[in-house]
Amino acid sequence: MTPDLQRRVQRYGWDRAANHYETYWKAQLKPAQSAALEEAALQPGETVLDVACGTGLATLPAARSVGPNGSVVATDISETMVQMTRDAAASESLSWVTAERMDAEALSVGAASFDAALCVLGLMYVPDPVAALKQVRNTLRPGGRFVAAVWGARSNCGWAEIFPIVDSRVNTDVCPLFFQLGTGETLATTFDMAGYGNISQRRLNVDLRYETADEAIGAAFAGGPVALAYARFDDVTRDAAHAEYLASIEQYKNGTGFHIPGEFVIVTGTLPAGSAS
Ligand SMILES: C[S@@+](CC[C@H](N)C(=O)[O-])C[C@H]1O[C@@H](n2cnc3c(N)ncnc32)[C@H](O)[C@@H]1O
Q1: CB atoms within 10 A of CB 239
Q2: What does the pLDDT average to over 166-176?
Q3: Ligand 1 mean position to 106 CA, how many Å?
Q4: CATH code where residue 140 lies
Q5: For the chain, how many structural domains are there in total?
């Protein structure tokens, strides 16, 4: 898949997934967002960039932390996601949040203007993560910090079979590097390659809990990165893909639902004080 096609698949796929996203993923992803926000340790009055903001699950708590004397600029490649973040901020009267559609590899925000940047579970979808990290670096003030969270190693993510199950039916290869960033020290090394210093990495192991098989299926197919390919399945293909996915998570059955293991990797990098790039 070319980088341009990957971006289009992400853009229109997440447009489709947006309305299902919080139903299936809000509770399950909270540990990753909380850990990233904890690492960022945002202070009142700070300026924050949130890259790949989705529906705003990290944007809004960031906005509450910095308060009205600060500001948060939220960006995402999906216009539907951007609009949902705008709406969520407006519903809480967080007027210091703005949201704009923007590719993580082409950030048109002020250079050297943010105290901190976040990217929670977005970098796996970006064709060139080093380029995105360099873009973020250029937006940070001297001494600014960037915290990114990604999914961990494939072997620690029990839902990982969703990709081959979908790819074998539509040959999409949606996210060729999906689990690579979360394997070993890859994300920390990527920060290093992009020019960050003082890099720290931590891993977080979680259970993704779903009460029913339908919820587990909804999260994997309609609410996540394969949503665009899935939308094109006919009924027979859907039923077969659902059955294959349920078989792949059978070992995580818990009563009527599932406790699927997942892993997040959270990396923080900092710019030297007194140097913007
Ligand atoms: C799993 S969601 C994470 C959203 C949010 N940060 C959160 O913690 O809930 C991934 C997001 O990455 C966005 N995305 C994918 N590729 C992107 C790119 N190249 N540039 C910016 N955003 C991208 C998607 O549109 C989607 O909203």
Answers
A1: 11
A2: 76
A3: 14
A4: 3.40.50.150
A5: 1
